[in-house]
Amino acid sequence: MSGAHYWLTSDRLALRRFTPDDIDWLANLYSDPDVTRYLGGVKDRTKSEEFLRTRILHYYDEHPGLGIWMTVERDTGACLGYHLLNHIRGESIIQIGFTLVKSARGKGFATEMALAVLRYGFVDLKLPRIAGMASLQNYASQRVLLKIGLERRGERTFPHPDYASEGPMAWFECDAVEWLADRARRPGAELSDSRVQ
Ligand SMILES: CC(C)(COP(=O)(O)OP(=O)(O)OC[C@H]1O[C@@H](n2cnc3c(N)ncnc32)[C@H](O)[C@@H]1OP(=O)(O)O)[C@@H](O)C(=O)NCCC(=O)NCCS
Known about the structure:
By secondary structure, this protein is of the alpha+beta class. It has helices spanning 23-30, 33-36, 45-62, 109-124, 139-147, 161-164, 176-185; strands at 8-9, 13-17, 67-73, 79-87, 94-100, 129-134, 151-156, 169-175.
């Protein structure tokens, strides 16, 4: 896929919209119990198709600027996972999130692109606050949320069936004013727009 489809970039990564052609990749990702342990468990192909149609493709039109995007390695074009900035289901709260295939983990990729997504949310979308949540045992995800500047603010439970079975989840938030002030104090922390025009 050409760079023209990448709408947000970081040093090593880029984001692009999902298309219907990504169903094989997504169904494969959701068939892996290790990957989906903290994502509500494996999904069969039918459930993956429904997720792609409703939660990803329709959502782009329903909520311009927000969504779930494919995370791609710029050097190779490989699909590494996804990053998201979207509504927690059944809520008006906007969350940041990420999932990577196993071979892409441990290289700082989740953190690198999550920082770019957070900056996009605060600078370009002017969101006042962004949240994050993770299963209590999902230490890697919690660590990434902390590294990008979110603050742990206890636990929360959500009634939507996708989360209800999880019970209390580790809850993180970050206010735009504080995050932007903190980034401005860091030498080398880029606040400019990394969107591809
Ligand atoms: C969460 C996830 C995206 C992290 O991807 P990643 O590219 O490995 O993340 P990064 O390399 O940017 O950072 C991971 C951090 O977590 C730490 N970490 C990883 N596993 C950990 C564990 N079991 N306990 C504590 N810390 C852990 C790493 O050491 C690193 O922190 P450091 O830089 O301070 O050393 C990846 O593990 C994943 O896809 N998990 C499955 C899906 C998922 O749970 N998504 C989140 C849903 S809320």
